[in-house]
Amino acid sequence: MSSSLIDVIRQHAPAPTDSASAGGEAFDLLAALARVPDPRDPRGIRYPLASLLAVAVCAVMAGASTFAAIGDWVDDLDASAWDRLGFAGRVPVLTTLWRLLIRVDGET
Q1: Helices (H), the chain
Q2: Is 33 within the bounds of a domain?
Q3: Is 0.85 surpassed by the pTM of this model?
């Protein structure tokens, strides 16, 4: 039985603490996503895994339900949003994100 990407993220996310729920330090999406195992060959990595996954998560949370919708969401981002998501300079095209998302193991 296949798990969703959200289940994988929950497995690797740090456990909540009382200070986080009481207004202390918030969970960091990029830090949680960085704990997901990277299925890519290290020789071909151009973009951080956590950044690519964050784009998908944020786009879906904003209402995107297809890869085309994710691409539209990505196209609407400005440079400061790209910086906050962890991209330096270049940004990936939609096919790069698609190739990664179909390879992320939902069982890990």
Answers
A1: 5-12, 18-21, 29-33, 49-61, 67-75, 79-85, 94-101
A2: yes
A3: no
pLDDT in tens, the chain (108 residues): 445 555 555 565 556 554 444 444 445 888 888 888 888 888 877 888 898 999 889 888 888 888 888 888 888 888 888 888 888 777 788 888 888 888 886 665
Report yes or no on 51 lying in a domain: yes
Angle between helical axes of 5-12 and 49-61 (0-180°, round to 10): 120
Structural domains of the chain, count? 1
Place of tokens 């290290």: 42
Does 106 reside within a domain? no
Structure tokens at 102: 């179909």
Between CA 93 and CA 79 the distance in angstroms is 15
Question: Domain limits at 91?
Answer: 5-101
Residue 11 within a domain = yes
How many residues would you count in the chain? 108
